[in-house]
Amino acid sequence: MSNTIDNYVDLRGDLSPIDFPYNEIDYLIFSELAYVHLDHIFKSQTHQTYTLQQLYQCYHQKNQEFNDEIIYNQSHFLFEKISKMPRYQNIQLIHYVNEVDKDLIKQFSAMTFLLEDQTMVISYRGTDDDLIGWHEDFLMLCEKNIPSQISSVQYLEQACLYQQHVSLLQSLKNRHLGSSLWTRLKKHFLYKKNYPIILTGHSKGGHLAMYAGCFSCESVKKRIQHIYNYDGPGFQEELMLTDEYKQMLPSIHSYIPHYSFFGIVLGHEEDYTVVKSQYTGMYQHDAFSWFVNTKGFIEDDLSMESVDFAIQVILFLDKLTQQEKRLFVQSMFELFDHLNLYTFSDLSHISYKTILNAIKELTFFDKKLRKMFVEVLHMLWLEARKAKR
């Protein structure tokens, strides 16, 4: 029987990372926790520290107070589950930020975890079903930088300033630091100011993890051990030619499902693993559908259908000037607003005739751009319908 990350938590949640070290599945779990909305807890204080067990208790209490405003998603239920598991419940969350600016087309959120072995894990929130996240993803296709990329570097460098007072005696008692007292002693002084860092994220969050790792300052880069990108877009060619990107490339590993779109657009040179999913079409982007076993992800081959779809979009964009690309992306999401479409799922509930009628109102397109606009929207609509089925 194939399991998903929910089953993995049930099966492995009682195992200490001392005996069963954290792996690629655990870092996906940390990526999914970034989708949990903690604004009610960190509204005025972003630096307060909680263990995940304490954090969930506070989160649950706040949810009861603000019940009508809480967003419940799969990550919410994952959070509830791991807060009760010995493997995760003593991990500390030491920083959280959530910034949404519709005018800037910016949706940025990140969390910083401190593991019991003093490793700092920074998890960036990615694109969910909300179309504002898709808008940001499309901007990556035509802009050199987007606001969330800049914020991802700033957040990483700020998080690295964190210091926690841990006495020598506490370190010597901490079995997570090593099996011998000598190893614990060395790590106590090594980690006193410079915790090792792991960056992770799903979807746009994976892209931001890579971007932050590549373009942070040199002192931060030296502390980064691994960067895990779960189905996140790559980089434009200009960024891939930089020394900063090439320097961090050996630290990056990407994971994409059998049917991937955003995870294979733009440039990728890092090692990658294709993962089997229980869903079809674009809904394989949902990492809760990815199959795992006790050793890691269950591997698959990349779907040529998804590659063809990505190539169609890329070839389409290559025909446009930079100004036309910006106009195209802006118009697409203005059209979605006009049609009251706010999620990718909403797109599957509307007829294509309705979309065509709305496009006719876009009078500022010339004939060539209108034709291309119709073609891309038709592709997206077909993908949404396919995913719905």
Cα-to-Cα separation, first versus last residue: 24 Å
Whole-number mean pLDDT? 87
Q: What is the subunit organization of this protein?
A: single chain
Q: How many E-type strands?
A: 8
Task: Give the topology, please.
Elements: H1 5-12, H2 24-33, E1 50-51, H3 52-65, H4 74-82, E2 92-101, E3 106-114, E4 120-124, H5 131-139, H6 147-159, H7 168-173, H8 181-190, E5 197-202, H9 204-215, H10 218-221, E6 224-230, H11 237-240, H12 243-248, E7 252-257, E8 271-275, H13 304-318, H14 322-338, H15 344-347, H16 352-359, H17 367-388
Parallel strand pairs: 4-5, 5-6, 6-7, 7-8
Antiparallel strand pairs: 1-2, 2-3, 3-4
Helix pairs in contact: 5-14, 6-9, 16-17
Structure description:
The chain is 44% helix and 13% strand. α6 crosses α9 (204-215) and α16 (352-359) runs antiparallel to α17. The longest helix has 22 residues, at 367-388. The protein contains 17 helices and 8 strands. By secondary structure, it is α/β, with parallel strands linked by helices. It has an 8-stranded mixed β-sheet with strand order 1-2-3-4-5-6-7-8, with helices on both faces. The mean pLDDT is 87.
What's the quick description here?
This protein has about 400 residues and is an alpha/beta fold.
